[in-house]
Design brief:
It is globular, with a radius of gyration of 23 Å. It has one domain: FAD/NAD(P)-binding domain, CATH 3.50.50. It is an alpha+beta fold and 497 residues long. A nine-stranded mixed beta sheet has the order 5-6-4-14-15-16-13-17-18, with helices on both faces. The protein has helices at 18-30, 80-101, 124-137, 152-158, 160-163, 185-197, 249-256, 279-282, 336-340, 346-355, 357-367, 371-379, 439-450, 452-456, 458-467, 479-492; strands at residues 10-14, 35-39, 112-114, 117-122, 147-149, 172-177, 181-183, 202-205, 208-215, 221-227, 233-238, 240-243, 265-276, 288-290, 304-310, 313-323, 390-405, 409-413, 416-420, 426-431. Bound molecules: flavin-adenine dinucleotide. Residues 14-20, 39-42, 46-50, 54-58, 60, 185, 209-210, 244-246, 248, 252, 271, 320, 329, 395-396, 398, 429, 432, 434-437 line the site of flavin-adenine dinucleotide.
Length: 497
């Protein structure tokens, strides 16, 4: 008899973003017999949140994101989350390096490049925080090489645009990590799908929207899919379904009617960038500079002045500014939010709204900003910014998870959540942080939940070790091994170490 890990199955991936791309490639590596069908409502791959212009492209490794190192009540810096994210990013890099080494795609520069990561703060209190953060992180091997400075000349050499025109008496400080990265997640998703679709028994259906899905008595899923070109309605059956529809995942999870999906709601937060159109200015900045979030701002609204490398061309972005739209996808409908309200999530949604008044206030304030207001916010990071050098661009849409809570009725979460049926036949990914950078770790977690027997099998374990040698290896006591692998992965991905 064929063992479960080698059995053929029909897998349906809803959505052609980075998450489905990662899961598809992982599954096909683990069991080449799987048949995989991908349904995407748009006419392009990765045109929603995963597209380079719709996200910040930061390879989140906690080098510069101050919200990953909160200050405890006793005044210490808690680095647990930072270490978790930094390790998870190494898992992603290991998988990408494996794929490059296997010859599946040639130029890692098409999706990943080094751009130093800087945290920059001003004012006594923030400088003290940054120094304490640096002292806590530098003791950990994953943050080796981080530099700290309060010296204005050094800071000027690191980021001239940020330092020119700054008040001389202002107390400022920064940390810098040279091995920070900028990632074009859109290109990464496209190369992953290009490879996936070259394999036998894999089909990509663009302009196909999944409208409904129901579990059948025989344990299979039946999906109703609409071909948006011919208007034909088709029915598809699947053994396993991944709802990798980004912002569109919540409505589909509700339609699946699985017990585990009850009570979830979503709160959309849209994003906007200021994009620089002056080539001379763009060429003067070569780093990602992250600051501190303003009061009431959600964690993903930390302002940053970001050098990006998009399709070989340098770009300079500032933001994100938050906004409010009832759409769950950038190419979605204004009815998305109202239509997602159901009997089982109305209380969690109202409670979460009530308990997050400061966020509501922040979003209203952000939504009413004029161009001049936005440029004024930019001047905190780039004092000499000229408003005519900057244009507004709309970023991707994030749907924050609202969950039932015994005490508060409902809570708003800023992380990522995998919801899966107890029998492992379906899973959905809600939320968007830390996002695409940790896509490999998130999809491995999904496999643990939905393919538990296969994941324990010798065949899959052997393959996992070959692809991601660091997988499941705790950091403590294995520091040298982790750093050796990081050096190896950086080499394969043409990154510095
Ligand atoms: C402003 C912003 C900044 C960000 N910055 C970063 C960052 O710096 N670093 C980082 O790592 N992450 C970042 N992220 C998060 C990252 O972009 C997301 O985590 C990631 O792109 C999510 O990928 P996905 O595949 O789940 O979703 P998506 O890329 O949104 O893909 C979902 C796909 O599903 C399709 N779809 C939806 N409904 C249906 C349906 N019914 N039928 C068929 N297809 C459907 C959509 O058209 C879409 O193509 C950012 C996100 C935003 C919005």
């Amino acid at each position: 008899m064929t063992q479960p890990e080698n059995q053929p199955k029909h897998i349906v991936l809803i959505g052609a973003g980075i998450m489905s791309a990662t899961l598809g490639v992982l599954l096909k590596e683990l069991n080449p017999h799987y048949r995989i069908s991908i349904y995407e409502r748009l006419d392009q791959i990765a045109a929603e949140s995963s597209d380079a212009w719709n996200n910040a492209g930061t390879g989140h490794s906690a080098f510069c994101e101050l919200n990953y190192t909160p200050e405890t009540e006793s005044g210490d810096i808690d680095i647990k989350k930072a270490v978790k994210i930094a390790s998870s990013f190494e898992i992603s890099k290991a998988f990408w390096a494996y794929l490059v080494k296997a010859g599946y795609f040639a130029n890692p520069e098409a999706f990943i490049n080094n751009i130093p990561h800087i945290s920059f703060v001003w004012g006594e209190e923030n400088v003290a925080f940054l120094k304490a953060r640096y002292e806590a992180l530098i003791t950990h091997p994953l943050f080796k090489g981080m530099e700290y400075s309060e010296d204005r000349e050094t800071l000027h050499a690191w980021m001239p645009l940020v330092m020119d025109g700054r008040e001389p008496q202002e107390k400022v400080a920064a940390t810098k990590v040279d091995i920070g990265t900028d990632i074009n997640f859109g290109n990464l998703a496209r190369v992953l799908f290009q490879h996936l679709c070259s394999l036998p028994r894999v089909e990509m259906h663009l302009m196909h929207e999944v409208r409904d899905l129901k579990k059948q008595e025989d344990g299979q899923w039946k999906l109703k899919v609409k071909n948006l070109i011919t208007k034909e309605k088709i029915k598809v059956t699947a053994d396993f379904v991944f709802i990798g529809a980004g912002g569109g995942a919540l409505p589909l999870l509700e339609k699946s009617d699985i017990e585990e999906g009850r009570g979830y709601g979503g709160f959309p937060v849209s994003g906007q960038w200021l994009v620089c159109n002056n080539e001379a200015v763009i060429q003067q900045h070569n780093v990602k500079v992250y600051g501190k979030a303003s009061v009431g701002a959600p964690p993903m609204s930390v302002p940053h002045l970001d050098t990006r490398l998009i399709d070989g061309k340098k770009a300079l972005l500032f933001g994100p500014f938050a906004g409010f739209s009832t759409k769950f996808l950038k190419n979605g409908s204004y009815f998305d939010l109202p239509l997602s309200i159901e009997l089982d999530n109305i209380i969690p949604m109202l409670s979460a709204g009530w308990h997050n008044m400061s966020l509501t206030g922040y979003l209203i304030q952000q939504a009413t900003l004029s161009h001049e207001d936005r440029v004024e916010a930019l001047r905190e990071y780039f004092p000499a910014a000229q408003s005519e050098d900057w244009e507004l661009a709309i970023a991707g849409q994030r749907v924050q998870v609202i969950k039932k809570d015994e005490e508060e009725g409902g809570v708003l979460e800023f992380g990522t959540e995998i919801i899966h049926a107890a029998d492992g036949s379906i899973a959905a990914l809600l939320g968007a942080s830390p996002g695409a950078s940790t896509s490999v770790g998130i999809m491995l977690e999904l496999l643990e939940k939905c393919f538990p027997h296969e994941m324990q099998s010798k065949t899959w374990q052997k393959k996992l070790k070959q692809m991601i040698p660091l997988y499941k290896k705790v950091f403590k006591g294995k520091e040298k091994e982790w750093l050796d692998w990081r050096r190896y992965n950086n080499g394969v991905l043409h990154l510095s170490d």
